[in-house]
Known about the structure:
Layout: H1 29-35, H2 42-49, H3 54-62, H4 64-80
Helix pairs in contact: 1-3
Amino acid sequence: MRCPSPHPDPKAVKYARNDPGTPMKFDNNYYRNVMHMKGLLKLDNALYLDSRTKPYVQKMAEDNNYFFEQFVEAMSILTEHYVLTGDEGEIRKHCQWVN
């Protein structure tokens, strides 16, 4: 009962539809949308407009296997970082300086 329907009601507002083409499938279609200026956020579209990041968007959109490889790599990197809790760390008021 908790899992979303594979055929969601298009009028329902249960989650952000950042991929109307394949909303219930984890794939690289999001990047194809970005190439058509249909990203969820303006920042997403900016990735395609910027000459420094455009090749990455194109590669992700063209090659689903490459997308999966990069996703696995990114998740691996994220899990390597140890989160500090309590008084072990601090939330900086300005990222360049220690409070």
